[in-house]
Amino acid sequence: MRSMRGIPVVLSGPSGVGKGTVASLLMNMGLDMIRSVSMTTRPPRPGEREGVDYFFTDPAAFEEAIDRNQLVEWAKVYQHYYGTPKHFLEKQFELGHDALLDIDVQGAAAILTLYQEGIFIYLLPPSLEELRRRLHSRAKGEGDDLDFRFNQALREMRFIEMYDYAVINDDPQRAAEECRAIIQSNRLRVERRKPWLRDLGLLT
Amino acid sequence: MRSMRGIPVVLSGPSGVGKGTVASLLMNMGLDMIRSVSMTTRPPRPGEREGVDYFFTDPAAFEEAIDRNQLVEWAKVYQHYYGTPKHFLEKQFELGHDALLDIDVQGAAAILTLYQEGIFIYLLPPSLEELRRRLHSRAKGEGDDLDFRFNQALREMRFIEMYDYAVINDDPQRAAEECRAIIQSNRLRVERRKPWLRDLGLLT
């Protein structure tokens, strides 16, 4: 029996929405899905493992990967590069695993051009007041920075129409369950099941 | 807060696949979904209630409904008419309820031309051998009739590519749960949530 090819599951959302928590809950729900491992030039933090948390590399090697078109998306945040290696993803997809990518709007746009069949989920706060409150509770310093980050979140949220699904994160467990239903039902799509339906003799 | 407009949920599948059982289980899963009520010229059977099981009518009134374009789909099976009244569906959609339609491939094609936003699910047997076995256990008479029905089922299944989803009915409870995940995740689609996201101020 042929196995179904995996696809990218993109999870985006404004800073402060609680994306990391939802992604972790989702990864523990028994779906046949791996978490995409990014390549970065940032030095490893204590406890971070090569090939599990990140593929650690140096700027010269990262820039070579960009030039050779070996990254499906990448960004430079402050002085460090972050990117998604194409080879890693493609291997997972061939093995039939979906891959969760926790990336921003620009990264999602890059994935969309390569994988139209992907699932694009945008995580939203229950309200703008709540988003401001969450950003505030995470803030470490001045109020100026908070306003800047809130306005940045508002700007980013305008790209939601690029996504297939909007999940409200009022409760992380519920939000993760909604993401799971989205991923499970995508696997029931006729176009994903075609090779399998052919093997069963149900489709010619 | 504006409520989300309902859509048709079409459930089709070959004779013998167990569509009725899955539809009944699905209707008891607490989804905001009603079961579409068909209009028919068939006489009521004991216990059938007007407006619940069917809208019972006479051939002249049914033919007038066809002429006035008041049915979203209809068919004549043996000597009786069956059809789905447009007014009934539209009212449910305005109230925000999805509507489950247990109809054949021809009916589904008619629904698709009117409601591209609908959910189209095709229920499949786990194997062709199992379908033949199920048809056999339901058969009341000669083997010729069984072959005819089996070949008809094979012919009908070739239209599966018109559908969005293929659900395998190996276990009716599991099949109904898969249908539920499909319907729930459809409600998380950005295009369905737009009016609501606008009301929240999350979309302009």
What does this structure look like?
The structure is a homodimer of 204-residue chains. By secondary structure, chain A is of the alpha/beta class. The first copy, chain A, has one domain: Rossmann fold (3-Layer(aba) Sandwich), CATH 3.40.50.300. Helix content of chain A is 43%, strand content 21%. The first copy, chain A, contains 8 helices and 9 strands. In chain A, strands 2-7-1-8-9 form a 5-stranded parallel β-sheet, with helices on both faces. A 4-stranded mixed β-sheet of chain A has the order 4-3-6-5. The longest helix of chain A is centred in the last third of the chain and has 15 residues, at 143-157. The model of chain A has no long low-confidence stretch (mean pLDDT 92).
Please provide the ordered H/E string of secondary-structure elements of chain A.
EHEEEHEEHEHEHHEHH
CATH superfamily of chain A: P-loop containing nucleotide triphosphate hydrolases
In whole angstroms, how far apart are the ends of chain A? 15 Å
Count structural domains of chain A. Answer: 1
Q: Which CATH architecture of chain A would you pick? A: 3-Layer(aba) Sandwich
What are the SSEs and their pairings?
2 copies of one chain form a homodimer.
Chain A: E1 8-12, H1 19-27, E2 33-35, E3 38-40, E4 54-56, H2 59-67, E5 71-77, E6 80-85, H3 86-94, E7 98-102, H4 105-114, E8 119-124, H5 128-138, H6 143-157, E9 165-168, H7 172-186, H8 190-199
Parallel strand pairs in A: 1-7, 1-8, 2-7, 3-4, 8-9
Antiparallel strand pairs in A: 3-6, 5-6
Helix pairs in contact in A: 1-7, 5-6
